[in-house]
């Protein structure tokens, strides 16, 4: 049996315009790395966290280990594990950082202990881990991180996850301005109820986006990328929101929307050249508002987590 394992789990863009809480896709980079090593006894401990000073070393309060504990409890497995977490994106980035650690944790232990659990069986435990950081159940980061690709959560009760086909030439440019937005806070500012005309518009756009992805209709994708639930409120939390949108759209972007609960924003385009031009333009735009930022360019990552050396 293996003694230790190292897993990379990708960042994710959730909400994807009109898909609040029900859509997300995985990126190739950045992503978190979790290492798990078997130890004597049955204690789960965190040996080291790289890349963040704010995360808890208490295993039941850290998303990476909380997901592992949920899994081990559920299958009544007693084992000792020492875990190392490498955070490669900021907490509160809007890129599914806690989901990536949570998914990496359960994926690693499934492989390490040769449990042969399916991704659907791992999902609930990854969600149990992630709930610790966001305080709410939403699967639109965990599901695409775990399954890879573009994912639709058709229903939460029961969970119904559907992988959606997408155009091969879809590139994503992500801007991560160096500010932090807590998902729990960004959820509090949202209205509990939405007017019927907004519900209709949201359903129309969400359906349009799925249809556009499947039929590879870039113009339909572009027309559908409007959110009536979260973005109108949350844009106030991102000082560079307007200038970044203008710069992205002026440089060939199909859309420009908030990634998850922000502050990251993302644009689709149809060539690497466009994606690079957009990255440079939106980085400059954010800087013009006094915000330094990271940019990432990635196609949609269809694999999800992987074991690495
Ligand atoms: N759908 C969630 C939200 C994603 O927007 O609150 C958070 O990353």
Helices and strands in order:
Layout: E1 4-14, E2 23-39, E3 44-50, H1 63-74, E4 80-86, H2 97-112, H3 119-134, H4 142-147, E5 150-156, E6 159-164, E7 171-177, H5 183-188, H6 196-215, H7 218-224, H8 231-234, H9 241-250, E8 257-258, E9 265-269, H10 272-288, E10 293-299, E11 306-307
Parallel strand pairs: 3-4
Antiparallel strand pairs: 1-2, 1-11, 2-4, 2-5, 5-6, 7-9, 7-10, 8-9
Helix pairs in contact: 1-2, 1-3, 2-3, 6-7, 9-10
The protein binds L-homoserine.
Describe what you observe in this structure.
- The chain folds into two domains: 4-164 and 302-307, Ribosomal Protein S5, domain 2; 171-299, Alpha-Beta Plaits (2-Layer Sandwich), CATH 3.30.70.890.
- It contains ten helices and eleven strands.
- It has helices at residues 63-74, 97-112, 119-134, 142-147, 183-188, 196-215, 218-224, 231-234, 241-250, 272-288; strands at residues 4-14, 23-39, 44-50, 80-86, 150-156, 159-164, 171-177, 257-258, 265-269, 293-299, 306-307.
- The strands form two sheets. Strands 1, 2, 3, 4, 5, 6 and 11 form a seven-stranded mixed sheet that branches.
- The model has no long low-confidence stretch (mean pLDDT 96).
- The protein binds L-homoserine (HSE).
- L-homoserine binds next to helix 5.
List keywords for this structure.
single chain; 309 residues; alpha+beta; Ribosomal Protein S5, domain 2; Alpha-Beta Plaits; seven-stranded mixed β-sheet; four-stranded antiparallel β-sheet; 25% strand; binds L-homoserine
């Amino acid at each position: 049996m293996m003694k230790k394992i190292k897993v990379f789990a990708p960042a994710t863009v959730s909400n994807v315009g009109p898909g609040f809480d029900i859509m997300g896709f995985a990126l190739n980079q950045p992503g978190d790395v979790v290492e798990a090593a078997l130890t004597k006894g049955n204690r789960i401990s965190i040996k080291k966290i790289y890349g963040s000073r704010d995360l808890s070393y208490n295993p039941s309060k850290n998303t990476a280990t909380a997901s592992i504990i949920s899994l081990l409890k559920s299958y009544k497995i007693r084992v000792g594990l020492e875990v190392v977490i490498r955070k490669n994106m900021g907490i509160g980035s809007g890129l599914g950082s806690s989901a990536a650690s949570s998914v990496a944790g359960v994926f690693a232990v499934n492989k390490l202990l040769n449990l042969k659990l399916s991704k659907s069986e791992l999902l609930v435990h990854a969600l149990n881990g992630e709930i610790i950081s966001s305080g709410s159940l939403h699967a639109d980061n965990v599901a695409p991180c775990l399954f890879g690709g573009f994912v639709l959560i058709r229903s939460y009760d029961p969970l119904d996850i559907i992988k959606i086909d997408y155009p091969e030439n879809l590139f994503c440019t992500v801007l991560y301005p160096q500010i932090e937005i807590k998902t729990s806070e960004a959820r509090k500012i949202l209205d509990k109820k939405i007017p019927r005309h907004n519900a209709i518009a949201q359903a129309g756009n969400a359906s349009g986006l799925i249809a556009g992805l499947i039929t590879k209709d870039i113009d339909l994708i572009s027309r559908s990328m409007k959110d009536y639930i979260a973005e109108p409120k949350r844009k106030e939390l991102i000082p560079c929101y307007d200038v970044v949108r203008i710069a992205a759209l002026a440089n060939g972007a199909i859309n420009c929307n908030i990634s998850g609960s922000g502050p990251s924003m993302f644009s689709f385009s149809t060539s690497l050249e466009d994606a690079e031009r957009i990255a440079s333009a939106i980085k400059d735009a954010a800087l013009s508002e006094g915000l330094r930022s990271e940019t990432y360019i990635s196609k949609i990552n269809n694999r999800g987590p992987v074991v690495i050396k």
